[in-house]
Records
---
Amino acid sequence: MSMQIKQWQTVGTIFTLILGTLLHFTYEWFGKSPAVGLFSAVSESTWEHLKLLFVPMLVFGIAEYFLYGKDLPNFITVRVVSIVFGMFLIVAAFYTYSGILGKNFMVADIATFFIGVIGAYVFSYKLLENGALSGKTSQVIGVLVLAGLVGAFALFTFFPPEFGMFRNPVA
């Protein structure tokens, strides 16, 4: 099972990198459709760029759940914790490098996305492999956190707070 999990995490990494990259552009491609905006970046804000990791990992995680995840007692919580970890890596890497340099660079921004995705899937593999977060309470908390994230992305897409990571630096 460990080898199967490793293979799925590798495929998930590639899937997330490709779909996440495409989601950077889909809002514009589809005429700024609000429906597309729910899962695509609608601005250049840090928050909106977190969708580029969140949405593909969620979609791939749903597929994984039905393929093998339902047989793992920790799958749902591990996926949610891994998504949050990947998002944290993106935010930490972005604000660290841009804070030190005083500005941001597109190639470094792309690198932060890659760091977040790869880090999230490595973390996911390690947690799935060792059976961490297997309890029923963990699974309930995982579902609640996931629901909160889905709600936050939907709400803040259309009503972003006046707070640093939600601001569009281009506007």
---
Amino acid sequence: MKIGIPKEIKINENRVALAPSGAEALAAAGHQVLVESGAGLGSGFGDEQYRLAGGRIIAGADAVWQEAELVVKVKEPIEEEWQRIRHEQTLFTFFHFAASRKLTQAHLDSGATCIAYETVQLPSGELPLLTPMSEVAGRMAVQEGAKYLENLFGGRGVLLGGVPGVPPARVAVLGGGTVGASAAAIAAGMGASVTILDISLERLRHLADIMPANVQLVYSNRHTVLEHLRCADLVIGGVLVTGAVAPKLIRRDDLKAMLKGAVIVDVAVDQGGCAETTHPTTHENPVYLVDGVLHYAVANMPGGVPRTSTLALTNATLPYVLQLANKGWQQALRDNAALLKGLNIARGKIAHRGVADAFDLHYHQPEEFL
């Protein structure tokens, strides 16, 4: 199979879908790996590394899209790329369709098969392709939040870990999944006073066993969310409903009760954000102020550390890319129930309930397309 690796062109996106090690594995399995020239430079991988790994370097995105049967990316195709998609192609990337009707409609119109990293799901409920990027984003959320708490950036001027005689910052983490747990561990390690809020008692019990003593576990409801918003220096939004729009846990009016100069890092921005005041930002212009509260809502946070992110993503996605390439998408989905859950759009129809519900469109069972 011909597998295309185009260069990511979303603003400040320096990741690449596969590291050279991934290209080498695919080439060894007998596939042609078409790498757009310069695709890996942002992550520190040059064309020669891909060439030595068995990839074919192609000048220009048009040629890659035109020849590839399976296109593997990091981020959803942006408008400039929509015209390049062919109806017989399979696309494998992060899509987050529920956050954008326009994006969803463009891919419905394309006729292509769209398999989303973020909804591939194991029987345990784990999201194996979202997990590594959630780990990166969770860790980064604390790193960025600590920076923007500095007075220079409009923050409260609070040091996350405090110093002897001065209490540490208070960090509220909304959601105890991979993002939340990763963020809490880093914030706690820096000495902050951390609270994780989640609606799963089972998850809270698990976190209670593994988190350090400066992490408190609280059941999430409207009352407890408000209580912790009022006193938090840093709020990290890490809630996720697989494939669907994130619930709005922070309302516009809630900001008036928050501390002036507090920071919200909304990692859920890819799925619409968990604050009503969230809108996507970029690494170039990452923050904005609403009612005295600083919002950080970069929609591709892991793109800020592209080498780490690319290697982590390749480790997770490569087994699935190999299955799609070796068997074709239909047989691969028949054989792998987790991969089947990744099917979002096929033949101009929606195959994921969360996406259909987000726009009140008709949902088709994914098995219909096999």
